[in-house]
Amino acid sequence: MDRDSRQTRWEQRTEVPLSVASLIFLGAYAVHVLAPGLPGVWHDVCLTLTMATWGLFVLDYGVRWRLSGRRLGFVRAHWLDTLVVALPLLRPLRIVRLYEVVQRRHGEPRLSLHARVITYAGLSTVLLGFAGALAVYQHERGAPGATIRTFGDSVWWACSTLATVGYGDVTPVTPVGRLIAVGLMACGLALLGAVTGSFSSWLIQVFSREEDERPPGR
C-alpha cells in the first residue's frame, strides 16, 4: 500500500474522533474559564481533558507527517493543521470538518458550493468568536486598567472584532489579549471575504441564468 493510501485511510478513520475531541476541548476550556467557583478537582479534570486533546492532535499530526514522507512539504500543504497543533485557540475549527463529513455521508455534498462556503464560514466565525472571547476573558479579567471585565464584554468585543467594526468601547490591554485580537482581525477579514465573494459569485450566476433564459428580443 502506497503512502497516499495509508495517509488517506488514517485521515478518514480519525476525522470524526478528532472533531469530537475538539468539542471536548472547547467544552472543558469553557468550564475552566467561566466557572472559577467550581471545586479544584473539576478544574483539574478540565485541564486534563484539554491536555489530552492536545496530545491527540499532536499524535495525529505526527502520524500523518510520517506517512506523507514529505517533511517540510507536508507542513506547507497542511498549514491549518500546523496552526491547530501550535495554537489551541484554533482547535475548534476541526468541528467544521465534522459538519463536512455529515454533508458528504451520501457520497456527494448536500449543499451547493456557495452555500457550503457561506455555511462553513459562518460556523468558523461562531467557533472562533466563542473561543477568542473565552481566551481574552481569561487573560483580561482582573488585569490593571482592563475594560473587559465580564464574559459579556468579551463576547461583544469578539463580535465587533470579527466583523471588522471595532467600536473601541472595550479593548484588550494585556499582551496576550492584543495578540489574540490581531488573530481575530485577520480571521474576520478572511471569513468576511470568503462569504462576500461566494455570495457575489452566486448572484452573478443567478443573473446570468436569467439572461440566458430570457426569450430573444426582450
UniProtKB/TrEMBL annotation:
Keyword Lipid metabolism annotated: no
SUPFAM superfamilies in alphabetical order: Voltage-gated potassium channels
Entry-linked Pfam families: Ion_trans_2 (PF07885)
Key words of the record: Ion channel, Ion transport, Membrane, Transmembrane, Transmembrane helix, Transport
Topology of this chain in the membrane: Multi-pass membrane protein
Protein localization: Membrane
TM annotation in the entry: 16-35, 41-63, 117-137, 179-204
GO BP term, pick one: monoatomic ion transmembrane transport
Residue ranges of every copy of the Potassium channel domain listed in the record: 135-204
Broad class of where this protein is predominantly found: membrane
Protein name: Potassium channel family protein
Species this protein is from: Streptomyces galbus
Organism ancestry: Bacteria, Bacillati, Actinomycetota, Actinomycetes, Kitasatosporales
